[in-house]
Specification:
A hairpin with a 2-residue loop joins strand 9 (about 130-135) and strand 10. About 50% of the residues lie in helices and about 15% in strands. The protein folds into two domains: about 10-175, NAD(P)-binding Rossmann-like Domain (Rossmann fold, 3-Layer(aba) Sandwich); about 180-335, N-(1-d-carboxylethyl)-l-norvaline Dehydrogenase, domain 2. Helix 8 (about 210-230) packs across helix 9, helix 8 packs across helix 10 (about 255-265) and helix 12 (about 290-300) crosses helix 13. The chain is globular, with a radius of gyration of 20 Å. The longest helix is centred in the middle third of the chain and has 22 residues, at about 180-200. It has helices spanning about 15-25, 40-45, 85-95, 110-115, 155-165, 180-200, 205, 210-230, 245-250, 255-265, 275-280, 290-300, 305-320, 325-335, and strands at about 10, 30-35, 50-55, 60, 65, 75, 100, 120-130, 130-135, 140, 145-150, 175. It is of the alpha/beta class. The strands form two sheets. The protein has an eight-stranded mixed sheet, with helices on both faces.
Length: about 325
């Protein structure tokens, strides 16, 4: 059966990212249903979805439901990585021949989804913009960003072009022939910022003003890039983060790398999804971010102390609900990094 790349769209896991993409698609006239938690759904159905920030406070009328109960033509899967498997179980009966676009951080989502549907149904997406869930019915889309999509298994170029055209009605979308490399590079970018934010409760710009946090970020990138290459993966350039810049930071003297990170992030005041999860008392994706590098280091026989430090400290914050002090981070870094 031929897959449709228009028609009914279901956004499964419509938190911050899913609400922005789904809401803007609905604003553009697409038939969208947001699948989300009850409080979000109830507010959207009564008052509409309010997207603040770049959208200038636009309020959008869009359908919302707590569960998928129809057969969509396109599914945008926007849950966190640790929730992908359960989401697939819940929607499995309604997938049919739908195109499923994965929008997770990390590198594991496509493989998990492939256990529940034919691989030719899957398109892999990578999000390069920040969004925040403010309260039920309200999200913020801070700066115009991009989505990158690719086919992780088959290579239907016409379908990719059509999906890119559709998603561009919400967020500018481009196609890559190396989606695996794009995900590995995004993992590196996430790892140098998300973890230190979640450890401290500060924005990445604030973190880059501290010498130890800046060093930890640079080391997570160095470790990650080298262990990824040793494992045989090939990172690719990202919108706003070309591969040349990543390599420059990896292979420059540490002081130069720290300077480059501070210069590239000194104006970033948005909060990462990892810190947002901490503040909402929700589990983070740290096992699929810095923790992914730790596990890959174990497999390849490489030490990854900076990524291990970040992973462990974020997990401590998750358990205690208390951000680490700078003094505590200094002490831990002296022992481990």
């Amino acid at each position: 059966m031929e897959q449709k790349v228009n028609g009914k769209i279901a956004v499964v896991g419509a938190g911050a990212i899913g609400s922005v993409v789904g809401g803007l698609l609905a604003k553009a006239g697409e038939d969208v249903t947001l699948i989300a938690r009850k409080e979000h759904v109830d507010t959207i159905n009564s008052d509409g979805l309010l997207i603040k920030g770049i959208a200038n406070g636009v309020r959008i009328k869009v359908k919302a439901a707590e569960k998928l109960d129809f057969h969509p033509d396109i599914i945008l899967l926007a849950v966190k990585t640790q929730d992908v498997e359960e989401a697939c179980r819940q929607i499995e009966a309604y997938i049919g021949q739908a195109v499923v676009v994965t929008l997770q951080n990390g590198v594991r989502s496509d493989g998990i989804v492939a256990g529940y549907m034919p691989v030719e149904n899957i398109i892999s997406g990578m999000v390069m913009f920040n969004a925040q869930y403010l309260q039920p019915g309200q999200v913020t889309y801070s700066h115009a960003g991009k989505i990158v999509i690719g086919d992780p298994y088959v290579g239907n170029h016409e379908r990719l072009a059509n999906i890119a055209s559709l998603l561009s009605k919400a967020v500018k979308t481009k196609v890559t022939d190396n989606i695996s490399g794009v995900h590995w590079s995004k993992l590196l970018v996430n790892n140098l910022s998300n973890g230190v934010e979640a450890m401290t409760g500060m924005s990445i710009a604030e973190c880059m003003n501290d010498r130890v946090l800046k060093k930890i970020s640079a080391l997570t990138l160095r470790e990650g890039y080298k262990v990824i290459r040793k494992a045989g993966y090939h990172p690719a350039g990202l919108p706003g983060a070309p591969l040349l810049l990543l390599r420059f930071i990896v292979y420059s003297p540490l002081s130069v790398a720290e300077w480059a990170l501070r210069q590239s992030m000194k104006n970033l005041r948005t909060l990462s999804s990892t810190l947002q999860s901490i503040r909402r008392g929700k589990p983070t994706e740290i096992d699929y971010l810095n923790g992914e590098i730790v596990q890959l280091g174990i497999k390849t026989g490489m030490e990854t102390p900076a990524n291990k430090l970040v992973t462990n400290m974020v997990k401590d914050v998750e358990k205690t609900g208390k951000f680490a002090s700078i003094a505590e981070i200094y002490s831990q870094a002296q022992e481990r990094v």
